[in-house]
Amino acid sequence: MLGLSVLYSFFTGRYHIPIEEERVFMFLDMKSSTTIAENLGHVKYFEMLKDYYADFSNSIIDYEGIIYQYVEDEIIVSWKLINGIENYNCFKCFFALKQALLNQTEKYSSRYGIVPVFKAGFHTGKVTTGEIGVIKKDIIFTGDVHNTTARIQGLCNTYNVDVLISGQLICKMTSGADIQIKSLGKNELRGKKEMIELFTILSN
């Protein structure tokens, strides 16, 4: 229920004292979720969300990510920087998630009459990580990287792409993986003073 990495961190007390670390984040959002929910009804939509998130689990584990939060139809996946950039794990996870849904096309079509698709935003930055709470404990990440990643993901429709990546993350990557990346130019994100270069992935 907590996830292996969170459970391990609680037992070892790793984040009992908050620490600063650099992490990669992927904010993944289901497309047209409001319309889907209206068409299915709340109960059926919830059942679809359970299937949707369950079908993501293996891909996230396979590529060394952790599930940070579920926020209705959005899932936030995070990696330690070294784990996220190694062998392009974070990007390969994105493609594996897409394939996981395609593999279940028949299931979604028969149960819900629709196959869900998603868009994603990637960014990296420093966060403060630590335990919080008394009655209900959790390990949380705080930092501006969250807001920036959410804004990047929110521009997918503007650029008509399924994935957007910050230039900061691209700069951390090493060459060698068979992934084609294209610059979409710089954009001034809402609430940000500095321009940020955005990229998308053409193929894996």
UniProtKB/TrEMBL annotation:
Residues 24-153 form the Guanylate cyclase domain. GO terms for molecular function: adenylate cyclase activity. Pfam families: Guanylate_cyc. Gene3D superfamilies: Nucleotide cyclase (3.30.70.1230). It comes from the Bacteria. GO terms for biological process: cyclic nucleotide biosynthetic process; intracellular signal transduction. This is Adenylate cyclase, class 3. It comes from Kriegella aquimaris. The lineage of its organism: Bacteria, Pseudomonadati, Bacteroidota, Flavobacteriia, Flavobacteriales.
